[in-house]
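Need tokens for this chain, all 187 residues.
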Amino acid sequence: MKVSFYRYMLAAFAAASLSAAGAALAQVDVAKSSVTATSKQMNVPVEGKFGKFTAQVSFDPARPEAGSAQISIDVASFDLGDESYNEQVRGKEWFDAKTWPGATFVSSAIAPAGGSKFNVTGKLTIKGKSQTVVVPVTVSQQGATQTFEGALPIKRTQFDIGTGEWKDTSLVADEVVIKFQIVAAHK
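Here are the structure tokens for all 187 residues:
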């Protein structure tokens, strides 16, 4: 059985969740940041991590509506912990990384959701398919450093992740949860 296909799907979802930013451009610390995707294969959770991504965030909690976020993920960097699975996920049936090397999220609105929580609306694009999503994000601040955390469940089949024999959601669940932690410092 191919287990790696659902892991790469999760990675794409992770790109969407990175959309938690707002008003003054901050320097993202990629070494301290992470984007993962978790899916279930035969009801067993499988998590993979994207090794390469870039993010631009601008966020002022006093003016969240002025904020913005852009995330670009190199889908070929998705790591399930086994190179044979990683190769499978890069293939046509999953991420098709040669044709669609990146997944992106671009915010269009940020709205307060109570306390340190915000809803970030934006466009998630994976394999050339775009959808408007709302990402719940929690923002914490320590000195000049802001941390944006969240999780976004997506349906892999809506982005053509898992085609052919992998389109069957009884083997690999349709829902993938993209989790992210983005650490940024204001200049």
